[in-house]
Amino acid sequence: MAEIPDSRQNGGFSLKWGFISLVVACWVLPVLLIITTLTRFTYNRLETQISNTITGSVENAVTLSQNRLESAIQASRAASYDTVIRDAYRAFQSDHDEIVLYSAVTSYLVNKYRYDNHFTTTFLFFNSNPETLYYANNRTSFGSFTGVREYRSEIHETVRQIAPQIGTEIRFLSRGSKVFLIRNMVDSSFEPFAVIVMQLNLAHLFENLSSVVWLDNATVFFEDQPVPIIGESFPLPKKDLPLGSVIYEKEQGIYRVFERQRIEGQFISYAVETDGSLLMSEIPTFRRTVFLLLLFAIPLLAFVIWIFYQYISKPALEMMTAAHEIESGKIGYQVGTIPRSREFRVLTDSFNQMSRQVKHLFERSYLEQVTLQDARIKALQSQINPHFLNNTLEIINWEARLSGNEKVSSMIEALSTMLNAATARGGNPLVRLSEELSYVDAYLHIISMRYGKRLTVRKAIDPTLLNEEVPRLIMQPIVENAVEHGIDGQPSGELDLRIYQLETQIVMEVENNGSEFAMSTCG
User: How many CA atoms, within 13 angstroms, populate the side-chain half-sphere of residue 155?
Assistant: First the structure.
C-alpha cells in the first residue's frame, strides 16, 4: 500500500500570507507608486507652470515698458522737430534779448512736457551759454526747485561732457534712482546748438513691472548701471545675457528672470525677482495630505486583513487544527467556533457531522470486533467441558497422591488452578489481586519444575492492594513472556515481580535479567 504524503511536510501555500502578499502587491505598492508618481508629476507640472507664468508675466511687462520707453524717446524728438526753440534761438542771436528767449523756451517746454507723464522734469541749455538752464516740471512733480538744484550741482557738468560725444543719438545717464535722457538739438545744418535733458518718470515708464506675479524686486539696468524700480537692487547674472533672450534662475523658492533689450542704440536690461515660495510651500502641504491619506489607508488595510482573518483564515485554521486532532487519535473531535461566513459555516457543519459519523463507525467497528472476539473465546471454551477437565485432573491428582508422587500432585493442582482462570468459570472479567497472584504462583510452580534452581523469583507486593480488583489473567501472560523470551536458553535467570500504587493507578512490573522487560498498569 502506497504511503500517503503529509501535506504539512511539503510546506504548501499559506492562505493568510498569500492574501497579505496579494494586497501588498496589488494594492499597497500600486497606490504608493501612483501617489509618488502623481506627487512628482504635480510638483514638476507646478514648477513648469510657475516658470511659464513668471516668464510670461515678465516678458509682457517688459514689452509694455519698452513701448512706453520708446514713446518717451519719441516725445523727446519733438523739441528738435518743432522749430519753436530753434527760431527763438535764431532771434536771440540777432537781438540778444534773453527775456524773450527765456519766455519762448520755457513756454514751449511747459506746454509740451508739463502734461507728459513720461518725464518728471525737462531741462534745456544752449551750447553758447550752458550755465543758463531752462526747465519745466510735470504737473504731478513736487519739489521742483530741489530737483533743479540737484541737477545743477550733480548732473549738469556730466551732461555737458557727454553731449558732444553722442551726436544725433540719445544717451541714458543714471544716478542712483534717477535716470536722465540726453539728446542734442541741431539746426538746419545738423549742427548741435542746444541740449535737452529729460528726467524719466520711472514709476510711469515701468509701471507694468509691478504687475509681475509674486513680484519682490525689479531693477532696470541702463548700460549695466542698476536702477531699482521696485524693492532692492540685485546684480545681473554672471553669464552673458544675449540680446532679446530670457534667462531664468531659481534658488530656494526665489525666481529671477533677466531680459536684455536694445532701444535707440542703448542696451536696457530688466531683472525681476519673484518669491514663489508661498506657492511652492503648498507642495509640502500636498505631500502631507498624501501622507495623511496613506496613514488613513493603513487602518483600512488592517481592517481588510482583519476581515479576511476572521471570515477566511481563522475558520480554515480551526478546521486544519480539527483535522490534526482527529489524525492524532481524537476521533469525533468537533469544531466549537461557529464561523461568521455562510460558506465556512456550511463547511464546519459538514466537518463536524463527518467527524461524528467517523466516531460512530469507529465505535461500531470496535464493538463488533470485541463481540466477535468474545464469541470466538466462548466457542473455544465450549469445545472443552471445564467440569470434565477438572474432574479428570482431580482423579489424576488422587492417583498421584496414592502412589506417593507429591511432585506430580502439586503440578496437577497448579494446572487445575490455571485451567480455572483460563476457562473464566463464573464469567466475571475482574478478580481480586490476590486471586490473580494465585494464577501467577500456579504458573511459576509448574515452570519451576522445569528450570529448578536455575530460576530465582523475587516478589515486592504492596499487601494493601491484594483486595483491589484487576482484569483476569493480566499478569500471568506477562510473567510467562518474561520467562519464555527473557530467561529460556540461559544458564540461570532472575525474575522480579513488583506491584505498587502510583497516584490512582496500580503498577505491575515484571523484570528479568534477560533481554525482555514488561510493565502493566491498572487504573
Answer: 24
Q: Are strands 266-275 and 430-432 parallel, antiparallel or unpaired?
A: unpaired
Closest CA to 60 of 258, 250, 212: 212
Segment 224-232 mean pLDDT: 89
Question: What's the pLDDT score for residue 245?
Answer: 77
Flag whether pLDDT at 7 surpasses 50: no
The radius of gyration of the chain's CA atoms, rounded to the nearest angstrom, is 63
**Side chain identity, residue 53:** T
Residues 133-191 pLDDT 10s: 999 988 776 546 788 888 999 999 999 999 999 988 999 999 888 999 999 998 878 88
Encode 221-278 in three state secondary structure: EECCEEEEEECCCCCCCCCCCCCCCEEEEEECCEEEEEEEEEECCEEEEEEEEEECHH
Write out pLDDT tens, residues 56-97. 888 899 999 999 999 999 998 888 888 899 999 999 999 989
For 13-68, the DSSP string reads --HHHHHHHHHIIIIIHHHHHHHHHHHHHHHHHHHHHHHHHHHHHHHHHHHHHHHH
Question: Which residue from 181, 216, 150, 165 is spatially nearest to 80, judged by alpha carbons?
Answer: 181
Q: CA dist 243 to 19, 170, 173, 259, 262, Å?
A: 64, 19, 21, 8, 7
Burial of 372 (0-12, 13-18, 19+ CB in 10 A): exposed
Q: What is the DSSP letter of 212?
A: S
Go through the domains of the chain in sequence order and give each one's CATH number: 15-280 (3.30.450.20), 428-523 (3.30.565.10)
Grid coordinates belonging to 431: 478478580
pTM value surpassing 0.90: no
CB count in 10 Å sphere of residue 464: 9
pLDDT at 119: 93
Rounded-to-integer distance, Cα 254 and Cα 232, Å = 14
* 467 close to 435: Cβ distance less than 8 angstroms: no
Whether the CB-CB separation of 215 and 228 falls below 8 Å is answered with: no
Write the DSSP string, 67-93.
HHHHHHHHHHHHHHHSSHHHHHHHHHH
Q: Please report where in the chains the cell 519739489 appears, as a residue.
A: 143
Please check whether residue 19 is in contact with residue 313, taking contact to mean a CB–CB distance below 8 angstroms: yes
Q: How confident is the model at residue 107 (pLDDT cuts 50, 70, 90)?
A: very high
Cα separation, 187 vs 57, in Å, equals 43
| Least confidently predicted of 2-16, 37-51, 72-86, 434-448 | 2-16
pLDDT for 387 equals: 57
